[in-house]
Write a structure and sequence with these properties.
Length: 169
């Protein structure tokens, strides 16, 4: 496979790799480095890529593993989850402020979730991935993923309710 064919194959999911890396690593620069590293590793596996059912699932798994290795090596204790793709360009200023405030609190709450739950919420609710693909990438059965997702959503929901009703101090 030549470089053009390779880029045509990875272009549809390259941004998804970056978003997963950014979700885990926080820093834009580190996420760009991670994405680049995964693409280089994929290129080096170029001749074997035909043996995989889903190159996208392979790339996402590689991204997840690379980022988790980076986090372990840094022993990062405080992850900040930032999701900047959420804005409705036609919303009123009040709606934009409310949405921004809501995302602020969701991000703050997600910071306290275990790494696995953060990744599951990112993959399912933000990347809108199917459970089957998540199962392959996370090396978990679908029921365990559903359970972890349900627990993470419940934690987020309860803390959001407390935030809006009582404030966080």
């Amino acid at each position: 496979m030549n470089q053009n064919e390779f880029m045509q194959m990875v272009n549809p999911f390259k941004d998804k790799l970056f978003r997963v890396a950014k979700r885990l690593l926080v820093s834009r620069e580190e996420a760009e480095d991670a994405t680049q590293e995964v693409l280089v590793k994929l290129w080096n596996k170029n001749s074997d890529l035909g043996n995989y059912n889903s190159v996208e699932a392979l790339a996402l798994t590689m991204t997840k593993n690379y980022c988790l290795d980076q986090l372990k090596s840094k022993r990062a204790s405080n992850l900040k989850i930032v999701h900047t793709n959420y804005t409705d360009r036609e919303a009123s200023l009040q709606q934009q402020l409310e949405a921004k405030d809501t995302w602020y609190w969701v991000e703050k709450i997600m910071n306290d979730l275990p790494e696995q739950q953060k990744l599951i919420v990112q993959m399912r609710d933000i990347e809108e991935m199917e459970f089957e693909a998540m199962s392959i990438i996370l090396e978990m059965n679908e029921q365990a993923i559903r359970t972890a997702l349900s627990r993470a959503r419940k934690i987020i929901r309860e803390k959001m309710i407390n935030t809006h009703h009582y404030g966080i101090g």
